[in-house]
Amino acid sequence: MGRGALRRDAARAPVDPAGGRRARQPPRGRPSLSRAGAHGDDRDRESRRLGGATPEIRRRSPAGLRVRSAGCGGAAPEPQTHGCLPARPAAPAHPRASPRWRARVRDAQDLLHGRRGPARISRLSARPPTRRRYRYRARGNRRVGHDHAHRHRRHPFGRGPRQPDHSRRGRRGDGGCRGERASLPPTLTKALLPLTINNITTQIIRAALNAAAERMRITMIKTAYNHIISESLDFGCAIFDPDVQMIAQGVGLPVFQGHLGFPIQATIADRGIDAFREGDVFIHNDPYTGNGNHLNDVAMSAPVFWEGHLTGFVAVKAHWSDVGGPVPSSMQVGSTDFRQEGLRFRSVRLVSRGELSEEVMRIIAGNIRTESGTLKDIQAMLAVCRAGDTFFREVLAKYGRDTVLEAARVYMEQSERRTRRALARIPAGVYRAVGHFDNDGITLDRPVRVEMAITVTDGGMTVDFAGSDPQVKGPFNCGDAITISACRMLIKCLTTPLDPVDEGCFRPLTVVIPPRSVLAAQEPAPTARYYVPVNLLLDLGLRALAPAMPDAVPAGSYGDQMPTIAFGTHPETGRLFIQGDLNAGGTGARPAFDGESAMIIFAGSTARNNPVEVVESRLPSIRIMRYALRQDSGGAGRHRGGLGIEREYQFLLPAFITFSLERKATPPWGLWGGKDGAVNGVEITAPDGATRHVRKATQHPIAAGETVRIMTGGGGGFGPPSERDPAAVRRDVREGYVSPEAARRDYGVGARGASG
């Protein structure tokens, strides 16, 4: 085609004399999408639309040209066809452009027609080159151009734009558009439909909530005053939904696994749900309703409101170094009534609508040893509650209340299903175990019995403590809440130990505890040493299930973290000091490995002992002379039990010490032919060399120059010792884990590795 032909096809249409432009034709109402099928070049139709004129090329760009900024927009609107969907209202006319905008338009026109070079357009800002973002691409729920600026979205009920020639008649005469779902009844709006979210969103929200709980944990570590919290990590924190179902938990003391909901439930039962107002904080440590352990472990909980609705709770539980009572640290061995052990808080409102109750704080300060730093730890726990509220709100703000709660419901159901599947792999049956702890601290010659029967069914577990001794006179009782928590820890370890913890993990579990037993004590039974029966029942649970899970259950552990509390007068300040520490020991050998050495007992396995440097820097009157593994403490076996420790304190000034040793009556047992591990012990040596052995003591006097040597037990062995590799025995002798005498006695391996 020649140039002249092109000029004839592009002959200009008549122009408007006033504006020098072609007269604009009103838009014709028609679908923006062509009808279905193949289409040709319909020049006649275009000519008719322009009133008979042939379309022409514009002489210049219109002055009112507006350029849309790039961004996410909505899917292209559906064409209006036959009234199947209502027409979208016309957009309002844009106001007159600003002078600056008109100047930019003139610059663009000049550049388009070559009247000005790029260097002369100074009003245009430079923009660095960027890659095309994925979210701007056209796909199912994205627009291609800038036809509408509303949010990108899918068509209602998941259907894309309808073509112009689609029939409005349904396939079966239902009056609806073909292929579409029927419209909602007038009484059922979209807001009433059940919320559904995909699994990716569910897991993202789950991770976000667990991250919030973990940030609560970090806040506790960074703000706590006492090393029992900041170093030994004797605390736990969690997040709950409005029904007090745990939806996230920070890594804390394992015995607090799934435990912190009980104090909240006790507060609701005591005061009603309406007692929780925005900005309130409650404290609770009643061992008989919702707490279960000693009075030193105080739970603090706060409601979380979102848009005026109660959306959940945050909670933290930590060990207060002192809660009053006759002895520093409030933990004694000879108490016979809970009133001798300190303050009891039953659903006490510590903060009211954001205001700290000075009256409650005055009562606390007037009844504790303020030198203990408890008041500072209270402020740290309040900071944790505030942090939990803030972090929970961040998740709610990002995903919405309904979405977060629905995601929590979904992943709790997933946890329940996974736990039931794991339980289904355990052979069904009833498994029993019986054990004893040494005594109750009052009647020293009578061991206390703990008996349990574990019934495993297809996807469920019931733990029954029928046959356990009634509550005892001394402080070696615990409440039912902490007993249930220990059973929860047990089922978690046996089923899905690597999964995050939430309420769904514990729904397959049922716990039956005889009232007023040593595991479900009632007022006025003391509970200062609650952890003794708890540690025993955890080991007994594993022992009971060993026949059902021979390839998974380890031998018995040393069984007692042996809290050792020293107190006296600080040589520099002249004030009272309290030094508490947990002592590690050996765990039982496993089916394929030796036991672990110097580990805190299962119930507190995330806790840590205090570093030597920390103790000596804080307390100049105490020196730690020795800290080592205890030779020959691990039970012999095909796999050797883990070793306990030896720690030797030297007191430069007079002081007192409180401690309690356990597991002499029921030592760390071996499994499948393995031997028992060594038991715990304490040896006190005077400067003249005289020694004395004490197993339980409250405020035992220590003279200046005396040393206290703490020896923790080892774990039981697994399998016959004769099956242990002689090379492993020689290695143990070389490393000092096993003495040459024990190697010959237990394994038949001499100094050179020869048998006999």
Overall mean pLDDT = 82
Structural class: alpha+beta
The shape is: globular
Helix content bin: 10-25%
Q: Count every beta strand, where a strand is a DSSP E run of 2 or more residues.
A: 22
Radius of gyration: 38 Å
- Main beta sheet: strand number and arrangement? 7 strands, antiparallel
Largest beta sheet: what is the strand line-up?
4-3-7-6-5-8-9
Gap between N and C termini? 110 Å
Strand content range: 15-25%
Number of helical stretches of at least 4 residues: 14
Low-confidence stretches: 1-13, 64-91, 117-124, 132-193
Give structural notes.
There is one protein chain. The relative contact order is 0.08. Among the domains are: 199-416, no CATH class; 554-724, no CATH class. The strands form five sheets. A seven-stranded antiparallel beta sheet has the order 4-3-7-6-5-8-9, with helices on both faces. It is an alpha+beta fold and 756 residues long. Residues 1-13, 64-91, 117-124 and 132-193 have low confidence and may be disordered. It is 24% helix and 17% strand. Strand 8 and strand 9 form a beta hairpin. It has helices at residues 3-9, 43-49, 99-112, 199-223, 227-230, 261-271, 358-365, 374-399, 401-424, 480-494, 531-545, 612-618, 726-735, 740-747; strands at residues 15-16, 21-22, 235-240, 246-249, 281-284, 297-306, 309-319, 348-352, 355-356, 429-437, 448-457, 460-464, 509-512, 564-569, 576-581, 622-629, 645-651, 655-660, 681-685, 691-693, 696-702, 707-711.
